[in-house]
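hey all, quick one before standup. I had two proteins in the batch that finished overnight and I want to keep them in one place so we stop losing track of which output belongs to which input. First protein below, input sequence then structure tokens straight from the run.
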Amino acid sequence: MKLQLTKGKYTTCIAQSSADMDACFALRSVCFGPAGGNSDQFDAAATHVLVLDTASGQAVASYRMTVLDSQAVEASYSAQFYDLTSLMSFEGQMLELGRFCIHPDQPDPDIPRIAWATLTGFVDENAVGMLFGCSSFRGTAPAIYRDAFGLLKERYLAPASLRPARRHSERFDFGAENLGKVDLKSAQAQLPPLLRTYLMMGGWVSDHAVVDHVMNTLHVFTGLEIARIPPARKKLLRALV
């Protein structure tokens, strides 16, 4: 796979030096708060991607990727919060996508586009069959995201055969809640950008959200089977690779 892609003002690269990793951690701190900027035991096994402003060298986005087979899925970051035994029946390589963040002062749509294009190249090269990870809502109060959770319940729950089971004690079981009529406009506005992208490509979610006080987020487990991505979207994602 190419280590660099370029679109407009931006270039992607694989983090290789301590300075590159420091840039990843600094951006995480901006996006997730101080706790999000800390290294953890999952960083060492991951491939870290940076999106840079080509002219200034400033990091404007980053994420980490970890390739796992079905027997290793319970050793993933997400498995701290979700029982992923159901995924052990999935045939093929999986990739955990984590710490995906875009600098809040950088709204240029070319940034997520080039980030996903780089991810697409990595997925193709490693014959990945499923992406998964945690998609985060800011804060820990589920009531303010009632429409979003209602939409997820109505349209985007994981297939029963792959649906994660409960592991974390503090959670919001929106799949079992009567959330009333969903305001679609409000729901779409409440969805985090990463989760919205997953869903546009055919992704699905767990039936509960985990309350994470350390990161000050509510997050849902999110999965995307590569075979289910609509052909037109695959073509767009591969256009830059």
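OK second protein, same deal, sequence then tokens:
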Amino acid sequence: MIELGFVSRMSEAPSMANPYKNLPPSSFWKTGVASENPYNIEGIYKKKFSIASNAKVATAGSCFAQHISHALKNNGYQVLDVEPPPPNLPQELHHKHGYSLYSARYGNIYTVRQLLQLAQEAAGEWQAQNIIWGKNGRFYDALRPSINPEGFDSESKVVQLRSQHVKSVYSLFQDLDVLVFTLGLTEAWTHKFSGTVYPTAPGTIAGTFDQANFQLHNSQFPEIVKDFEKFHELLLRIRDGRPFQVLLTVSPVPLTATAAPSHILVSNTYSKSTLRAVAGHLQAQYPNIDYFPSFEIVTNPRLHSTSFEENLRSVRGEAVENVMRHFFKEHPPIA
């Protein structure tokens, strides 16, 4: 009888508060994902700051950043281009030669270390080494090997154009108000003796792979954060302390290949989850850094991989449009 009385008293006690009880639909998988329209996801992005209508925007990063850059231009944003294509180059060849993709002709910047070294080079605080690669008697800038598919006819031409490029990047960093940067990879090939980071492995587009000179480096969370913080500090110095804003994204495009000793699915998950964690950390720590969830919008399970082409890597045009619709809800097109 005593036990029955105890049970009775317990059942009559008021229920404990449920910390999930009054949360919005976006907080639950069922209502926020499973039954939500993936083309109109409520609450997936709330801007941390506004972008002024006259803000000068610079874009850089991995290949997905090209889509963002194009959409910003088409919606009235003042996207900088410090290395425009020459007038005599046909428009259909602009992208093939590295023009009109980003705010400078740096090609894809896949890693934060690559971004940091570019800024250090522009500021005259660091000198890249082993940057001229050859192929079939032609010469390539190893730090942006895809900007000229045929290469250049001399090493001196590579040096001359790189000097001009670095000066242009310095002026870009001085002039921008907002930097949109897409984090792409953690894996990178480096020069063993100088630490120079390359966007591609030697022997792919140009150059020759030599294990004595090159090694794979797969960055971890702490060093990526440290590299970006160094870049952030350097950008402030280049700008003489003038403030700027950063909008980070993570590329949803999977790795083409991995040189790490793991399956490509495992390597891809490591890379993207690490970069996503970095972006979240930086957003939380810096008032001038925001994160836009293009990665989550594209890889939403509700879409069942329809965001990608048949190769499951290339993002479909309609998926990019979906991403930017969510962006422009918070940062409306500029008339």
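Flagging for whoever picks this up: Residues 1-8 have pLDDT under 50 and may be disordered. The longest strand covers residues 56-61.
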